[in-house]
Amino acid sequence: KGELRIQSLNFDDAGMYQCIAENTHGIIYANAELKIVASPPTFELNPMKKKILAAKGGRVIIECKPKAAPKPKFSWSKGTELLVNGSRIRIWDDGSLEIINITKLDEGRYTCFAENNRGKANSTGVLEMTEATRITLAPLNVDVTVGENATMQCIASHDPTLDLTFIWSLNGFVIDFEKEHEHYERNVMV
Where does the chain cross the membrane (predicted)? Predict the structure, then answer.
């Protein structure tokens, strides 16, 4: 197939590689540089979020994405407690931490630890629980005579510390109230 495979790379393998393809009509060349990357984990370019919000009873994924080569091994702690995979907690292969069925007890400081053969690093964020957003009054089916007006209501409860936005769509397409203001009118009750 014209492939060159190199097993278990080391720094001596770095350099300019040249492929030569030849037949009775001639010869052509192509060059490529192989760089060997090796670095300890660092969170400088992609630190963990300092504040992570999760809805009560919901699910959260806390990302841990340090720059590192080779790929690091990951571990997590909440405060001083080392976390392990269980029924509600899972550490993904990419380092992310998933927690399901969030409760108030899940709030706290979470630290991701990354380690490879070049070194180790960690990053910390605080998980806070919010009240889940719920639709308390959903739109109802409406039969309206052509040419008349129709009003549909949607009311939701939400955590008072967060903003709430209502988005309406028609047959899966979001309604743009600025472009279609002559046809649709949004009434917001504070």
Answer: none
